Amino acid sequence: MNHNGILTKLVKLNWCSLGIGAKTGNSKYKIPIWSHIFFKSVQIMALQNNSRRIMPYSFLQRLPKSGDATTTGFTLLFSPEPCFLVTSSAWAINPGICPTVSNNFQRWNQRPQALWWSAIGTLKLAPKRVLRSWAARRLRVAFVESLRKCGYSQDGVRISVNKKNGVFHQPSLKGTVQIFANNPSLIKMRNHDLMKQMDFTVQLLIKKLTETGSKNSRNRFDYSGRHQGKDKKRTF
């Protein structure tokens, strides 16, 4: 029996020992709120024990690109390993504050070979949220289009390519990518210029992911080194 089944049985035994749910005459005991909290915590623990290891946010590396942040308008971080994003760092440390954390772990385990990515706007881009959301949406559309040009779906799955000898499949992309819209130049940048920058960035990203994916990641990263400490704060 796995950890999930054992912990679930322990919770049921705990409820039975307290008489929760047992009827007495016309009355019925109500399940106290602490039981719901305890059961939810047990579910999260079981999912974490049975799930693949998710690395901290500090495992993400900055992807080198042509030009500076003023010309590109965005910054891309990547890792061949599954990592927590900056937007999930809070509930990664304290899962109890996120009501959907169990569903997040289940989705992660159901797609072990997928490329997980997101794009967000930062305060450096603009103080107004509507501009940050609009810029992040531009990056998402450009990133998906660049992946398609390189023969990948939006999840990093390699699309079949026709050759003389038939149809073959190349390895799909795996890992974590987070794109930050962090420069005001992105607001006035034309779509043609943005796609040019994104195409170059995605080509370099694919090269990096395929190179590191073919190697043993445990030899590439030192698990006993600085990555095991607290995540370093990054400003974008």
Supply the key terms.
globular, alpha+beta, Ribosomal Protein S5, domain 2, 44% helix, single chain, 2 domains, 236 residues
Task: Give a description of the structure.
This protein has helices spanning 3-17, 33-50, 69-72, 89-93, 101-110, 129-149, 185-188, 191-213, 217-220; strands spanning 23-24, 27-28, 61-62, 74-79, 115-121, 161-163, 166-168, 175-181. The termini are far apart. Helix content is 44%, strand content 14%. Strand 6 (161-163) and strand 7 form a beta hairpin. The strands form three sheets. The chain has a four-stranded mixed sheet. Strands 1-2 form a two-stranded antiparallel sheet. The protein has a two-stranded antiparallel ribbon with strand order 6-7. The model is unreliable at 6-31, 33-40, 42-50 and 216-232 (pLDDT under 50). The longest helix is centred in the last third of the chain and has 23 residues, at 191-213. It has two domains: 3-50, no CATH class; 57-90 and 99-228, Ribosomal Protein S5, domain 2 (2-Layer Sandwich), CATH 3.30.230.10. Helix 1 packs antiparallel against helix 2, helix 2 (33-50) packs parallel to helix 5 and helix 6 (129-149) crosses helix 8 (191-213). It contains nine helices and eight strands. By secondary structure, the protein is an alpha+beta fold. Residues 227-236 have a biased composition (Basic residues). Residues 216-236 are annotated as: Disordered.
